[in-house]
Write a structure and sequence with these properties.
The chain is mainly beta. It is 4% helix and 32% strand. The longest helix has 16 residues. It is globular, with a radius of gyration of 24 Å.
């Protein structure tokens, strides 16, 4: 299939406002006299505004954009450069910008894969193009390394890939790095405490949707190479993985060779390089969000139809799962940990529909979900990224190139969902569903 290249980047330049001309000088002189008189009448302890020295630059704080969710709820922001980019990855860089990489789009029943990437700048609310990968890919992973670069691993573009690339924010370019020992997509990628990256499971060699893998690999950014580590006890793809507080990694759920959801979970120990079984989930699920919460427990929820609306919490101290309250939504695609400890779950793909605009907030202190508002557009295959200021960027999706920003309500406050947007009827031409965005 052809690769959809990104078009012209958005113009982010701001034009300065010209200063006053000679006709403004009399009024300026009067204003200075009045200011002098006002200051003279102030008490010695009164604070006086300090003016910058002559010729110094003057800065003005940007006017907050209500449309970008400066009040609780969802609000629109700039649209992505590439149309209908879904199943991409989104990674917040150390400077606060968000890197969007790869993905796919469907046009008149034909699937195209993106090699392009773009950057979202929350300071101005716009996207612009950046460098492109050497290979188009979706169902890949993106991991922010400790040195600020982003590791892109595997994925597929009608063939499963073993290659990996590094994005350098300083140059805006992708560079090749070592390749995995096995091609894989729909795998997990977890940054370890020592800076290495654990790659586990996924689909195997050949075309997409092959049998899942038992194997796992470690990427070392110092050498730029992958090496094999211990194998999992259960082959799985579309699983969830999350770094625990003690440095181990929980790998949970997924899909087996018969395309059935998996109940089991296991723990990877970087010190021994081995996996061992741990407790099983009450409900089997795949396409999983696994998020380590502030108290060290792990929020786990799947996006498949059978487990829609359910979630579990894993307790590392007991090695067991427990059920939570149910989501209001019947499906979701992405979930993120907010700064205040709650979890936001949004969007999703219903059978026979192209997405939904629902959102739920999970509160670990009450073990329950509450409404989080309604997105401006129904979505599935979108990404969600927590920004440095605590808001959440929700970008793209398989049927939409728009983006929006979510501002969480204060703890204890609620948001009443709006009636829309309604579910979009399915066109029958979409071939999505190979795993959520990172």
């Amino acid at each position: 299939m052809g690769v959809r290249r990104s078009g012209n980047g958005l113009d982010n330049r701001r034009r300065g406002i010209a200063g006053g001309g000679p006709s403004d000088r009399p009024r300026a002189l009067v204003a200075m006299i009045l200011l002098t008189l006002a200051v003279a009448g102030c008490s010695p302890n009164s604070a006086t505004p300090s003016l910058p020295p002559s010729g110094a630059a003057r800065t003005t704080a940007p006017t907050p954009r209500v449309s970008e969710a400066t009040v609780p709820g969802f609000g629109a922001t700039g649209s992505m450069v590439s149309p209908s980019r879904g199943y991409h990855t989104a990674t917040r860089l150390t400077d606060g910008r968000v890197l969007i990489v790869g993905g796919q789009t469907v046009t008149e029943g034909s699937v195209s894969y993106f090699s392009s990437a773009e950057l979202y700048d929350p300071a101005v609310g716009t996207f612009r193009s950046t460098g492109s990968m050497s290979q188009a890919r979706e169902s890949h992973t993106a991991t922010l390394l400790q040195d600020g670069r982003v590791l892109i691993v595997g994925g597929q573009n009608d063939n499963v890939l073993s290659s990996a690339e590094l994005y350098d924010p300083l140059t805006g370019k992708f560079n090749p790095t070592g390749s995995m020992s096995a091609p894989r997509e729909n795998h997990t990628a977890t940054l370890l405490a020592d800076g290495r990256v654990l790659i586990a499971g996924g689909d195997g060699a050949g075309s997409a949707d092959q049998a899942p893998l038992l194997s796992a690999e470690i990427y070392d950014p110092k050498s730029g190479t992958f090496s094999q580590t211990g194998s999992m006890s259960v082959a799985r793809k579309r699983a969830g993985a999350s770094l625990l507080k003690d440095g181990r990694v929980l790998v949970v759920g997924g899909e087996d060779a018969q395309l059935s959801a998996i109940f089991t979970a296991e723990i990877y120990d970087p010190k021994s390089g081995t996996f061992r079984p741990t407790g099983s989930m009450p409900v089997a699920t795949f396409s999983i969000a696994a998020i380590t919460m502030l108290d060290g427990r792990v929020f786990v929820a799947g996006a498949d139809a059978e487990s829609a609306g359910t979630a579990e919490v894993y307790d590392p101290t007991t090695g067991s799962f427990s059920s939570t309250g149910r989501m209001a939504a019947q499906a979701f695609d992405t979930a993120v940990l907010l700064h205040d400890g709650r979890v936001l779950a949004i969007g999703g793909h219903f059978p026979g529909a192209e997405g939904n605009g629902s959102a739920d907030l999970y509160d670990p202190t009450t073990n329950s979900f509450g409404p989080a508002g309604t997105m401006t557009s129904p979505r599935f295959g979108q990404s969600a990224t927590v920004l440095a200021d605590g808001r959440v960027l929700v970008a793209g999706g398989a049927v939409d190139d728009s983006a929006e920003v979510y501002a969480p309500p204060p703890l204890g406050a609620t948001i009443t969902p709006s009636p829309g947007p309604a579910l979009s009827p399915a066109s029958g031409a979409l071939e999505m569903g190979r795993g959520g965005a990172g």
